[in-house]
Amino acid sequence: MDWSNIWMFWWLIFPIGAAIGGAIKSFDRASERRHRRRLEMMRAKAELRSGAVPAVAAPPASSGDADRSGGSAASVPADPTLTQLFAIHDDVTARWLEYELDVAKLIAFPAMSDGRQPLTAAFLRAKRVADRLRPPTASARLSAEQRKEYRDAVTDYEVAFDLAERDARRVKDANFSAEERKRLDTAQQLLTVAVDGAATPAERQLAYRRVREELDGLLLLSDDAIEVLEKKVAHELPARPSTAPPAAPSPPA
Is the Cα dihedral 71, 73, 74, 76 positive or negative? Predict the structure, then answer.
């Protein structure tokens, strides 16, 4: 090959360089979006673990309201509508926690914990709005607008979860490569051994370590999920409330 002729095409350096630069910028933007979504997921988990649920400010009670309620704001009865909304709100959060704390379900439906998935990201946004607008108690005094905002937020939260869950069960592990799916299958099989009461403690510990190795880089396990799994591996039973022993029968007179 005559390398001296290559210099005749020196002008190609500029369009090729521009194309490479554009590709690098596109990759950086995609990486930034993935990073933001992962931070969104981690922030939601942290808020859930800390139990911090921002509450909407309630308007101050007037003296007339206090007189009608018996002279004390504490005696205001719970609002049935808010009580129902609280129940729906808590139910959706509990359903989400089933995926967050159960590693087996997380492996089977990884999209439910992947903030890069559009429907999962939308659910997390709806969760933040519902948590922010949630009143401190069911007897809080809300304006009609505040009540409507919270009701709409809970509805959006419930719908967003249903859509994310339906999509996660549809796609399952389709977003992973063949090699990654093989690792997920291996982790699922090892998980069965790790929590098997018939296996020895050494076998369970070895299987548990291999589960963590297979999932490393594939799924982001929360600290709570790891804690729950480690208790299952160790076969720790939940603490039961202590009960006083029955009183001895009185001796006959």
Answer: positive
